[in-house]
Design a protein that fits this description.
- The protein has 342 residues and is α/β, with parallel strands linked by helices.
- It folds into three domains: 85 residues, Winged helix-like DNA-binding domain superfamily/Winged helix DNA-binding domain (Arc Repressor Mutant, subunit A), CATH 1.10.10; 117 residues, Periplasmic binding protein-like II (D-Maltodextrin-Binding Protein, domain 2, 3-Layer(aba) Sandwich); 94 residues, Periplasmic binding protein-like II (D-Maltodextrin-Binding Protein, domain 2), CATH 3.40.190.10.
- The protein is built from 13 helices and twelve strands.
- The strands form three sheets. It has a five-stranded mixed β-sheet with strand order 4-3-5-12-6. A five-stranded mixed β-sheet has the order 9-8-10-7-11, covered by helices on one side.
- The longest helix has 28 residues.
- It is globular and about 65 Å long.
Length: 342
């Protein structure tokens, strides 16, 4: 058994059981990563994953136990390296953030930049992760912070969930599309009559997008899904269908070929949450992250909630709506500035 095998096992889980993404993350080839996994399973005498054909479906019970130990071992290795680095005077601390592509690409850059200025020796590791696996990664000590979005109440987690901002979905079409010529709001029936392109989570039975259509007695035509908002925009531009995506993903340059139509009258408002792992040693860095990303939250109250283990659900200030100065969403959808109240 080698550290490389353990790192590859952890990478596979953190990448949503996607071998290709895991190989890219650890800078290995897909065949090489699969070979290491096979050798690990042969040495231990147990499969780490339940499989369907060549696809990994889920961790086995033994795989889950091995994963827990692997994370602990790798954390200890990192600790040893930190000790050695301290002796050389080049200590760096790593903050691990599990998040979706949309948050990483469009919402987090300013916060990460400010955090790096505040803590020059801090290394931030962004872990693009599928929606459904974000909390699992956090709860299994695979991250210090998770950025999660819901269309209902707080996410169910052992960590501390803090409301960061609220946002809407928009319908995205090519500028020449018939919907782009409408002078009235889109209807749900119109969207149900065209191919749709949205996030991977829309394939889930409990997807809020899918449930809205089904409650109205309609069946959405999901023509394509992606975890990457830029891919959704690319295939909308190619004429594959109408995109349903988060307003944060809109950029001024999109207006050259695409038009975003308000859909907040059709779909529920979503909330993005910061979820902190309570036992993370990076308390000050986590609190600074919250202060930058959700400045409406009181730092002292957040620190108290972390220490006491009590969630202040319902006691946080009103959650502001998303708005970035100069963003395309500000130009297309008339939302109040971030930090204002509706």
């Amino acid at each position: 058994m080698t550290l490389t095998q353990l790192r590859h096992l952890v990478a596979i889980v953190d990448c949503g059981l996607n071998i290709s993404l895991a190989a890219e993350r650890v800078h290995a080839t897909q065949p090489g990563l699969s070979k290491h996994l096979r050798h690990l399973e042969e040495e231990l005498g147990f499969p780490m994953f339940n499989r369907r054909g060549r696809n990994l479906e889920s961790l086995t019970h033994v795989g889950g136990r091995v994963l827990e130990s692997a994370r602990m071992i790798l954390a200890e290795v990192d600790s040893i390296r930190s000790v050695v680095a301290t002796m050389h005077g080049v200590t760096r601390t790593m903050l691990r953030i599990a998040t979706t592509h949309t948050q990483a690409r469009f919402a987090l850059p300013a916060t990460i930049g400010a955090l790096s200025q505040r803590f020059p020796n801090l290394s931030v590791h962004l872990q693009p992760t599928a929606d459904a696996l974000l909390l699992d990664v956090l709860d299994s000590d695979g991250a210090d912070i998770a950025i999660v979005s819901t269309s209902g109440g707080p996410p169910k987690t052992n960590g501390l969930a803090l409301p960061a901002y609220r946002w809407h979905r928009v319908a995205l079409v090519p500028r020449e599309h018939a919907f782009a010529q409408l002078t009235r709001p889109l209807t749900l029936a119109e969207l149900a009559g065209v191919p749709l392109i949205s996030y991977d989570s829309s394939l889930k039975a409990d997807s809020s997008l899918r449930q809205i259509f089904e409650t109205a007695g309609l069946h959405p035509q999901i023509a394509m899904t992606a975890g990457d908002a830029d891919l959704i925009k690319t295939y909308v531009h190619a004429g594959m269908g109408v995109g349903i995506l988060a307003e944060m993903a809109l950029q001024p340059s999109d207006a050259e070929h695409l038009r975003a139509l308000p859909a907040d009258h059709l779909f529920p408002t979503c909330t993005t949450w910061i979820v902190l792992r309570r036992e993370s040693p990076l308390r000050e860095q986590a609190l600074e992250f919250v202060a930058q990303f959700a400045p409406h939250l009181d730092r002292g109250q957040v620190g108290q909630a972390l220490t006491s283990g009590v969630n202040f659900d319902g006691q946080w200030p009103a959650t502001p709506y998303w708005h970035q100065p100069g963003s395309a969403s500000a130009q297309v959808v008339p939302f109040p500035a971030r930090g204002s109240q509706r």
